[in-house]
Structure formats: structure tokens, C-alpha cells
Amino acid sequence: MSKPGRLLILSGPSGVGKSTVRDRVMEQSPVPLKLSVSATTRAPREGEQNGVDYHFLTPEAFEELRRQDAFIECKQVYGRNVWYGTLRGEVEEELRRGRWVMLEIDVDGTADVVRQYPDAVTVFILPPSLEELEKRLRGRGTESDEAIERRLARAAYEIEKSKFYKYPIVNDVLEKTVAEFCDIILRTSGESE
Ligand code: 5GP
Fold first, then answer.
1. What stretches of the chain show up as alpha helix (H) in DSSP?
2. What is the CB < 6 Å shell around ligand 1?
3. % of the chain at pLDDT higher than 90
4. pLDDT number for residue 75
5. The pLDDT of residue 192 is above 60
6. Substitution candidate for ligand 1 out of 8, 9, 38, 114 with most atoms within 8 A of CB
């Protein structure tokens, strides 16, 4: 029998360096990973490509997919009428084929996914401290004070929920974080043999 595929869930607060960690792990993972492309109703940022970074949808198109039960989970991440969702089409066929699929989703979406896929491997990237996270967010220089306050409040909520993740990793030194993450994948892939 072929080995079953696994879901790998990556979460962490805004400003923690999640996308850098994700990109490095996608390159260095000991098993091939497919990145699930989420759907969202938010506008693309400069440089983001439809179908690569997200499937950018109108609220109507998103709602239609929701009605068709096309999402494994979907959430309004910042509670401001912007939707994000994991499409079944990005995940189910890959898992059936025994492939590993990485989801980069928030803490509430993770809870829904874990209910449906109890063997999902959950990884939470933590900042060394909240002070350090604030420093990193301010260092970007891209957000207003109000937006930073909102992200910090959300970060505190997410960090509180990190206790539900199997593998919390403190992102202190990037290379160390990536190595730890790859080691988790290696050990877990051994378990399912
Ligand atoms: P951003 O707008 O900065 O790309 O993402 C904002 C947040 O939405 C991040 O925390 C990201 O992990 C989360 N997110 C992205 N896609 C999904 C998804 O499909 N489902 C859920 N629940 N959260 C998502």
C-alpha cells in the first residue's frame, strides 16, 4: 500500500517571518511538499499573482464556492469582512495520491482542519517575545500605528492559541527554525511508514 499523504499546517502571527520560513521549508523539506493556494476576497498586494499567492475572488464568487461546500474551512481572519479559505480542490486529491500538502492558515482555520484531519502536523512559529514582534512590525515601516496595534492584539490572541499546536518553534535564528521544521517533517514521515 502506498504511504498516506499528510497535511502540514503552518501558523504564526503577522511579523514573525512566516513566509520566509515557509519558502525555505518548501525548498529544503526532506519530503516533497505542495503548497495549498488559498482563496481570498482581499485585494492583491503589489507583486502578488492570482493562482500563485492566492486565488483572488469577488465576495460573490467566494460565497458561491462556500455554498457548494468547496472549502475545508473558511474564516474572516481580521474580522473585517475579508474572507480566506482552504479549497478542497487544492488538498484532497493530493492527499489521496500520498503527497504532503502545506497549509498556511490562521489559528481558527487550523482548529476546523484538525477536526477533519486529526493527523495533520501542526507547526506554530513564535516570536522570541512580544516586544521583539513589535520591533519587527515597526521596523517594516509599512503600517500605521493603529494597524500595528491591531496586529499586536491579534498576535496575542494567536500566541495564546499556539498551545493547541503540536510543534511550537521560536523563530530566533532563521536557519535554526528551518532546520527544526525540516526535522519535524522527517520524523513524522518516518512515523507513517
Ligand atoms: P495575508 O492577508 O497577510 O496574506 O494573510 C492574513 C492571514 O490569513 C494570515 O495569518 C494567513 O495565515 C491567514 N490565511 C491565509 N489563507 C488562509 C486560509 O485559507 N484560511 C485561513 N483560516 N486563514 C488563512
1. 18-28, 59-67, 88-96, 107-116, 130-140, 145-161, 174-191
2. 38, 42, 73, 75, 77, 84-86, 104-106, 109
3. 81
4. 95
5. no
6. 38
